[in-house]
Amino acid sequence: MARPLSEEKRQAILASATELVATLGTGAATAKIAREAGLSEGTLFNYFASKDELLNQLYLEIKTDLGNALLTSYPSQASVRERSRHVWNNFIDWGAKHPMKRKAMRQLSVSERITEQSRRQGNAAFGDINRMIEESLVDGGPKGCSMAFAGGIFEALAETTLEFIARDPRQREHYKETGFAFFWSGMSK
User: Tens digit of pLDDT for each residue in 16-41?
Assistant: First the structure.
């Protein structure tokens, strides 16, 4: 009879994978991931059948964490600007608190190893946010702007904001305010 798997070991593997994917990309070796987690590579494969399964589970874990952060106290009845501001602030706060998760997500988001099923599942938690972006595009956003492009602009401005916060944490609120001002002025008339 197989021993039950330990959630603590699973989390150690995911934490190690986060750090190594953030720094080395999706090519990080499973042996190194296991070693950094304090486990053998064989133990890693007791938890994840393949490296692709590990990367897809890591993607979903980080997306879930980010989704929970963005939607905490989400003001669904507020104006588009207020909802956008809420998402922006929570994204910046999450990204500043979890720089390795943010960097790992960047790597995973462009990886061909992440399945379409994982992408759909990971994006499902962002339904309210996607509707808000669609609404802002309809209500005066740049003509002909797609959801993907608007999301890309948001991410690029957020990444720039987070890079400047990392350089000078004392200016965090200033950079957060200014970054949102740039985003909002581009999304509204």
Answer: 999 999 999 999 999 999 999 999 99
